[in-house]
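G., the chain you wanted modeled:
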Amino acid sequence: MHSLLFSRYGVGMAYGRHIDNALMGGKQLRRSDLSFTVFLSDPDTYTGGELVIEGPDNETSYRLAAGSAIVYPANTLHRVDPVISGERLVAVGWVQSLIRDAEQREILFDLDTVKRTLFAQDGKTDAFDLVSKTMANLLRKWAE
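Predicted structure as tokens:
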């Protein structure tokens, strides 16, 4: 994790459509693979100010509860709509993953989801061990 930034948006403030910089960090540059936003204001204290993330076929707006966070690929187009009333406080930051390739990260995420589901359903089983082994071996192969 790197380049944590606290932002305050008052009435009329917005942040236009963009993708985050590929490299950040000043003297020691780091890749920005994932972006995150931690919502610090209760959504009842302001209107507008939605974080809008574009997908291939749609846009999704977020105004989450204070203390909630959303993580999304740093190369995703996104924006912050204008604040209409109140004040929007957030912390934003970026993560350099040990896995550079987004498709490989998605495979590992899906496998981890399956692993957690298997464990929640049946505890430590042969299937759980096999998924754990596969994840570990893919990490060895793909990690930088």
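Residues 102-122 form the longest helix (21 residues).

Shout if anything looks off.
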